[in-house]
Amino acid sequence: MKRSIILCILLLIVLGMFNGCSKKTNSKDKNTFTFATWAAGTELEEFQAVIDKVNEEAAGEFKINVLSIPSDYYVKISTKIAAKNSPDFFWLTQELISKYAKMGALADITEQFKQSDSLTPDMYYEGVLASAEYNGSYWGLPWIANPIIVYYNKTMFDALGVECPSATDDWTWEEFIDICRQISGREYRGNTVYGTIIDGWPNIETFIWAGGGDIIAKDGESIILASEEAKKGMSYLQTIIEEGLSPRYAEVASLGDNNVWFEKQRVAMFFGGVQDNFETKVDKMDESVKFEIGYAPMPVCDDGSPWSFDWTASTVMAKSLEGNDLAYKALEAVTKAFFEWKIVPPVKGSLNNVLEINPKKEAAMETIAYIMDYARSANYVPEWSDINDKLWYNLYVSLLNDASFDYRSQMDEIQAYSHDLISKRKSK
């Protein structure tokens, strides 16, 4: 009997030793982390170089390993999360922050973010930072900003005798449309040209904001798509389509992507992200077809602000690492390293990085500096993917294909649909 008791005690001691060892390898004690990225090819090589530099500067305090997921990125990330095998760090675009936060996949980094002595909320452009916020908490660190600006063919404007827009001064949507009217249908370098090109880009938020409206209110609860302001914004899009100021939706693919129309000088103005590298492409053109690129901010919306849709992404941390200070330190270090890799860095006082990364953007700097104060994302909710499907298929594409489409009634229907989705979540 005594022997049995002694064996039991020894067994408990051994098990305790194993449990003690396991604590050394749990999420609180780990110092090697995996970062999942959608980068591939040359971008992956650049990404790896950034990570290598971060690891070198960490001097053994932590190490980050790269996990490349170049295809079906979000499907595979979601699968890993469901299998409780989430990468420690990964990228999320702005529209997915709320969804992943709601499903319990992300670490709440609010307190670490606010208490940091290296990267704090007040360092960010307000509109960019809002993309990483949900339910009053921060779930990621934005690492890039790519707001929309207006690229225009200054050479074409001059040849056709049309006054160019200013690099920083406000202009209205009515003025934008008037310029399109002055250009559309005229001959330039042997082709009939258009004022602009709308083919599903820019995204629908651009036009809804144009009238001073929005899709979802800032509270993340109220659906305001059916407001008269939002409908006024869509009327600007209807005018562009109805008057033929843009190539027809079905016609765009005849030259390739929409940006090709600008490169081939078939449209005078293009809504492009700051990252769009038209400068390099034009620089490589034959001298006989080269043209000068001009830059302007987005037209002023009816609420008085030149809101610019900003594509942004954040570095996020797995829920299992919540409260892990070393993991957060690594997340912060790699996020700051990205500021020196891609334009535009989403923090104030960093615009010099733009020219260091891409010197060809020098002529655009006035406009970039101006528009960053107005860069913003939509007010995203976890149900956004379903709402966006309705906005795209039932509203945007329908109007692009038929300028007489009753978009006002459709906006009413999508508002009701969206309201029901959010109400179901709130009632659970």
Structure description:
The protein has 428 residues and is α/β, with parallel strands linked by helices. It folds into two domains: 31-146 and 311-376, Periplasmic binding protein-like II (D-Maltodextrin-Binding Protein, domain 2, 3-Layer(aba) Sandwich); 147-309 and 379-427, D-Maltodextrin-Binding Protein, domain 2. The protein is 43% helix and 14% strand. It is built from 17 helices and twelve strands. The chain has helices at residues 2-23, 41-58, 73-82, 97-102, 110-115, 126-129, 154-160, 173-183, 204-210, 228-242, 258-263, 278-283, 325-338, 352-357, 365-371, 384-401, 407-427; strands spanning 32-37, 63-68, 89-93, 133-134, 137-138, 141-153, 187-188, 191-192, 269-273, 293-296, 308-317, 375-376. Strands 1, 2, 3, 6, 9, 10, 11 and 12 form an eight-stranded mixed β-sheet that branches. The chain has a two-stranded antiparallel ribbon with strand order 4-5. Strands 7-8 form a two-stranded antiparallel ribbon. Helix 2 crosses helix 13, helix 9 packs across helix 10 and helix 16 packs antiparallel against helix 17 (407-427). The longest helix is centred in the first third of the chain and has 22 residues, at 2-23. It starts with a helix and ends with a helix. Mean pLDDT is 93; it is low at 1-25.
